[in-house]
Structure formats: structure tokens, C-alpha cells
Amino acid sequence: MVKKLIPALVALALVAVGALWLGSGSQGPALTAIGPASAQDAAEVDPSRVPDMTLGNPDAPVTLIEYASFTCPHCASFHTNVMPQLKQNYIDTGKVHFIHREVYFDRYGLWAAMVARCGGEMRYFGMADRIYTTQREWANSNDPAVVAENLRRIGRAAGLNDEQLNACMQDGDLAQAMVAVYQANAEADNVTSTPTLIINGEKHSNMSYADLSKILDAALGE
Questions:
Q1: Are 34 and 177 in contact (CB under 8 A)?
Q2: Which fold is adopted by the domain 3-220?
Q3: Domain residue limits, the chain
Q4: What does the alpha-carbon distance between residue 136 and residue 158 come to, in Å, rounded to a whole number?
Q5: 49-99 per-position pLDDT tens digit
Q6: Which segments within the chain are labelled E, that is strand?
Q7: Helix, strand, or coil here: 64?
Q8: What's the rounded Cα separation, in Å, for the pair 202 and 64?
Q9: β-strand 62-68 against 96-102: which pairing, if any?
């Protein structure tokens, strides 16, 4: 079953206390839900801080947008079983411009996205791949402190230090912007589950590489 979006978690903000994030306390980063009364005004959110993360030629004949959550098992399967061939045969060959857009089901997914973005655009996809492929390990705990430490471990493996990770996880303004951009994009593309694929403007649900390649070949006129 495809995991559905949870309306109560659509608007999220993460405010991490440095001492907790660094492991000196018994809790992990705290999650604050933003309702209409407490959310920042739209004018105060800077969407330029949340650029699309992309692979391939921006001028490719086909644009494929994937909406995915780092805590969605179907998304992890897509990145394990479909993405390698998609990248090799379509993205790296200049046929497809790939855009990865994050969906936030829960606080763990938001934290994972903040860690992935902490390394900047050059490191993003390497970190994202690691987060997806080790999803069962890092997210398999009800203890926020354990999940936070697991994500820190992934960040360290990518060359980030605790100071950098702590700064990223404490960036409440960035969290606000990420949520605002997610909401706007998901509403515009009518995203109701993950993974959702938008291929040259047409929405598709999760699929195998064989099925995806047929759609891409048709869009390419091949």
C-alpha cells in the first residue's frame, strides 16, 4: 500500500536544542507543529533557501520530478531498484532532467532532509542515497535521540562534523522554508502519496523500471 500524506503533519517546523542534538540529553531534536496562528507569514519565508535538488541536463527533453519521503519504504525501494538504471540510461545520457522533491510525513523525514541538505547541492544525492538505502537501520527506533544519532552518523560519513550538523538541525528558519516549499509544490502537483512521479507535467504513481522506461521512451519519441 502506498503511504498517504498525513494532514496533521503537513506543516512542520524543527527546532533542535544544541545540547540535545549533540547527545548530552536524553531526547532528540524537538518537533514543533505550526498551525495557522503560529506559522510565519509567507512573506517571511525565503524559498530561495530550498532549491530543487536536480540531476542531469536542465534542457533535457523530459523532466521527471519525484516527490518522495525519506521515511517512505516505497521511496527507498524506488531509489534502490529503479534509480540506478534511471540514472545510467536516461539522466546521465542527457535524456532526462531529474528533480527530487522531499515530502515530510513526520519529524524523522524532515530531520533526514535537513541532514541531506546540510552538505550542499554537491553532496545531496550521495547523502540521500545513503539515507534511503539504510532507512531500515536509521529510522528503526521510537527514540528520537537514537534516530538523531543515526542521522548524525550518516552526516559524519559524508564529511560533516558535529558543529555543522548541529547548525543545520537548529536552523528553524530553514525548516519553515522547507515546509512552505513542500506545501506549495505538493498542492500545485496534487501530490497525495509517495513516491509520485511527474513526467513532463503528467502525474504517475510508483512503478517498476520497466514500466517507467516505457513512459520515458514514449515521451522521448523512441
A1: no
A2: Glutaredoxin (3.40.30)
A3: 3-220
A4: 19
A5: 999 999 999 999 999 999 999 999 999 999 999 999 999 999 999 999 999
A6: 3-4, 12-15, 30-33, 53-55, 62-68, 96-102, 193-194, 196-199, 202-204
A7: strand
A8: 9
A9: parallel
